Amino acid sequence: MITSSLHDHTLWPALVADLNVLLQPAQPPAETPPAPPLDDLGSIWQALRQLAESWGKGPEAERLIFQWQQRLAFVASQSLSEAPVPVLCLLADDQGWQPLHSPWLQEVLEMAGGRPLEPVELSSELPPETHLICFGTLTQPPALQAARRFLVPAGADVLLPGSRLPELLELLAEMLQPELFDFGHRGTGWQNWL
């Protein structure tokens, strides 16, 4: 089975660029520092803090991270009232749909009210109540039966754990707990995919 992972070596340059735009350091380093491990949200926050400190922008980064954490905490506190929804995420790549696996994404899915399933073969049978979330622009839906299927056309662009992280959580919460959340992303950030 092939799985797609959100690897540190691909995420880190995007995070550095994201933070550079947000903080606008006077003199960012000429080279991107080596990618630290980005295993969970805690390690992501720590990496962003260290990078901002190296640019002399520590307090500004703290304010941004605090704002992001507040948005995450709001959604997480609301979604705890509901039973977790089994969810499987897929990412479109040049070979089709691949199960998506990432420890920090699992953490975000749980905050949104999901219970992440282990990556499975695309020919596997899923529990009937499973929600399938597909990130990408392939026109052919995966051949998996699921209670609900969603498409996030932005694909990997929304899977960056920086300034897009609160938006990703809001998208996931709207899909998994529609009776609780409406942030206005439906139809633009995601859609039902029958």
State the main characteristics.
194 residues; alpha/beta; Rossmann fold; seven-stranded mixed sheet; 5 helices; globular
Explain what the structure shows:
The chain is of the alpha/beta class and 194 residues long. The chain has one domain: Rossmann fold. The protein is 38% helix and 16% strand. The protein is built from five helices and seven strands. The protein has helices at residues 8-23, 41-54, 58-79, 103-111, 165-176; strands spanning 4-5, 85-93, 96-101, 114-116, 131-135, 148-152, 191-192. Strands 1, 2, 3, 4, 5, 6 and 7 form a seven-stranded mixed beta sheet that branches. Helix 3 packs parallel to helix 5 (165-176). It is globular and about 50 Å long. 34% of the residues are buried. The mean pLDDT is 85.
CATH secondary-structure class = Alpha Beta
State the CATH superfamily name. Answer: Nitrogenase molybdenum iron protein domain
Report the end-to-end length measured between terminal Cα atoms: 25 Å
Going by helix content, strand content and strand pairing, the class is: alpha/beta
* Rounded mean pLDDT score: 85
The best one-word shape is: globular
Low-pLDDT windows of residues: none
Biggest pleated-sheet summary: 7 strands, mixed
CATH architecture field:
3-Layer(aba) Sandwich
Overall tally of domains: 1
Tally of helical segments: 5
Residue share in β-strands: 15-25%
Can you write the helix and strand succession as a string? EHHHEEHEEEHE
The helix fraction, in percent, is 25-40%
Number of strands: 7
User: Which fold name fills CATH's third level, the topology?
Assistant: Rossmann fold
Radius of gyration over C-alpha positions, nearest whole angstrom:
17 Å
